[in-house]
Amino acid sequence: MSIGQAFLGLLEARPRHGYDLKRAYDERFGIDRPLAYGQVYATLSRLLKHGLVSVDSVESGEGPDRKRYAITDAGVADVEQWLAQPEKPEPYLQSTLYMKVVLALMSGRAAADVLDTQRAEHLRLMRELTRRKSAGDLSDQLICDHALFHLEADLRWLELTAARLDDLAKDVRP
């Protein structure tokens, strides 16, 4: 996810301080991985340098000055362009899991065990996401659904691969 574009989108609603941006980002997008403050201010600095945000006001206090940032017209255009571009689908053609299965087969290890271990981990995560989804708001439900659908596709691949292990072993064993 592009933190810069997320900040620009959040700034479209109103100017904000770095702390407020971090909090809004973490509440909406960073529940599992909140931003570090250094990342917030590095991103704001980059956006400022590129003319996508400006300093709306500066408040003096006991600590360092607090800057409030506002999106510029160039920033609005950047967000519009970013939103209009589709995300590239990730085909997973270089899957680490596939690599583990092939290497297990090549070495004579039990590739079925690799698949079983992975299946158990997927199911564990699916249970966790289902609990989170049931207790969450609509935003949390949607992001959990996205992750659950990907995990379901992975499980289908695990089952298909398990059914084809003998044939794959013939292809990869020396």
What do you see in this structure?
Helix content is 68%, strand content 9%. With 174 residues, the protein is mainly alpha-helical. The protein folds into two domains: 3-84, Arc Repressor Mutant, subunit A (Orthogonal Bundle), CATH 1.10.10; 96-172. A three-stranded antiparallel β-sheet has the order 1-3-2. The mean pLDDT is 92. Residues 8-79 form the Transcription regulator PadR N-terminal domain. Pfam families: PadR.
Short description:
The chain has 174 residues and is mainly α. Helices cover 68% and strands 9% of the residues. This is PadR family transcriptional regulator.
Question: SSE layout and pairings?
Answer:
Layout: H1 3-13, E1 16-17, H2 18-28, H3 37-49, E2 53-59, E3 66-71, H4 73-84, H5 96-107, H6 111-135, H7 138-163, H8 165-172
Antiparallel strand pairs: 1-3, 2-3
Helix pairs in contact: 1-4, 2-3, 5-6, 6-7
Low-confidence stretches: none
Provide the CATH superfamily of the largest domain: Winged helix-like DNA-binding domain superfamily/Winged helix DNA-binding domain
In CATH, the topology of the largest domain is named Arc Repressor Mutant, subunit A
Q: Write the H/E string, N to C.
A: HEHHEEHHHHH
Mean pLDDT: 92
The end-to-end distance, rounded to whole angstroms, is 42 Å
The outline comes out as elongated
* CATH class annotation of the largest domain: Mainly Alpha
Q: Strands of the biggest beta sheet: in what spatial order?
A: 1-3-2
CATH architecture of the largest domain: Orthogonal Bundle
Count of beta strands: 3
Structural class: mainly alpha
Over the alpha carbons, how many angstroms does the gyration radius reach? 23 Å
Number of helices: 8
Domain Transcription regulator PadR N-terminal: 8-79
Organism: Dactylosporangium matsuzakiense
Pfam families: PadR
InterPro entries: Tscrpt_reg_PadR_N (IPR005149), WH-like_DNA-bd_sf (IPR036388), WH_DNA-bd_sf (IPR036390)
